[in-house]
Amino acid sequence: MNAKSIQANAFGDYIRRLRGTQSLTQREFARRLGISAPYLNDIEKGNRSAPRKDLLNFMCSTLNADPNTFFDLAGLSRNSIPADIETMIEKSPETISLLRAIHDFQPNEGQLQKIRENLMAEQTSAIIIAAGMGSRLMPLTNDRPKCMLEFGGMTLLERQIRAYHDCGIKDISIVRGYQKDKINYPDCTYYENEQYQENNILHSLFFAREAINGHVICAYSDILFESRVVARALESSHDIAIVVDIDWRDYYLDRKDHPLDEAETVIFDADNRVAKIGKILTERDDVHGEFIGMLKLSPKGCIIFRNHFDRAKALYANKPFQRAEIFEKAYLTDMIQELVDLGVPVHTIIIERGWKEIDTVEDYEKALLSFKG
């Protein structure tokens, strides 16, 4: 088999595998695409190169494929520039001058990565979900939200804002609820969750619905994280991705008030796609990491996430939903599991440490030790 046939077959194998995950027969998929089953069969077997651009776009959306992988393999199959790159240049001719500059100056991989990070940060916003009461931190939270607890002279919320700023993210929205008057930082947009006692994190996020748009990072307000965690999230090109710590178990040693079985754990496959998420009771080796409470969405991911929330709300209002007693009390992890169950790809962004959850008085006191001295 020559190199061109191998490239075509890589694209064909990818199409066949994705079709299988959607439980689509070859005939059914061909019918949706408006092509003959033999033509699709030839593509999947590598006997034909990838089809024309308009059909590629439709195939990609129908299969919920990762656009980068899909169009790169299609381009290899056709021995041409990936179709999505052609479209990008057609829609934004000014990118040609940038490509010429890259050709002329030959920046190294690190310099190109820095350019990408700067562009992504400028286009990315952040939503901090800070409406909850933090009852497990009382009496420390009797007169303030838990995100206003101080660590080394700065509140938890200030440290989050600084981490975003360090990565170039300036557009920050905060969902307030409990003791909302205590949260008042300049240059932030505020949304109010007046029903914070009747709902939970998922619903709280959607009080900032208009901010779930474009490239956005959504995060819990009770996590201390380093700026490198935000930087890792910015690197993700997936539509929906969650930050997962794979070096997490030792953090639960001697953590009496928040035991291991209360962790929001994640099982993911070889492609780093989420298979199961939540407070999972499994064998020790089954769990691959812990969800830290940070979600990254692309513009397309925002649309998918909003649409599925609306669908779930219409179906499950005041009814059980995933692990939640009723939909209104659902966690973010319940919505993520719902997406996974429906076949929507949710990828993981892998980190190793660099964060702490502040959920109990014990957590707070332990975290304080790292700011002394």
Question: How would you characterize this protein structure?
Answer:
This protein is of the alpha/beta class. It is 41% helix and 17% strand. It is built from 14 helices and 13 strands. Strands 1, 4, 5, 6, 8, 9, 10, 11 and 12 form a nine-stranded mixed beta sheet that branches. The protein has a two-stranded antiparallel ribbon with strand order 2-3. It has a two-stranded antiparallel sheet with strand order 7-13. A hairpin with a 2-residue loop joins strand 2 and strand 3 (154-155). Helix 1 (3-21) packs antiparallel against helix 5. It is globular and about 70 Å long. The N and C termini lie far apart (65 Å). The relative contact order is 0.10. The model has no long low-confidence stretch (mean pLDDT 89).
- Main beta sheet strand tally, sense and closure: 9 strands, mixed
Q: Which residues form runs of ≥5 with pLDDT under 50? A: none
What's the overall geometry? globular
Structural class: alpha/beta
Order of helices and strands: HHHHHHHHEEEHEEHEEHEEEEHHEEH
Mean pLDDT score: 89
Rg from Cα: 23 Å
Percent helix among the residues? 40-55%
Multimerization status: single chain
Please give the alpha-carbon distance between the first and last residues: 65 Å
Number of strands: 13
Strand content: 15-25%
Number of helices: 14
Protein topology:
Layout: H1 3-21, H2 26-33, H3 37-44, H4 53-62, H5 67-78, H6 83-91, H7 95-105, H8 109-123, E1 124-130, E2 150-151, E3 154-155, H9 156-166, E4 171-176, E5 188-192, H10 201-205, E6 215-220, E7 223-225, H11 227-235, E8 240-245, E9 265-268, E10 274-278, E11 289-297, H12 299-316, H13 332-341, E12 347-351, E13 355-357, H14 361-369
Parallel strand pairs: 1-4, 1-6, 4-5, 8-12
Antiparallel strand pairs: 2-3, 6-11, 7-13, 8-11, 9-10, 9-11
Helix pairs in contact: 1-5, 2-3
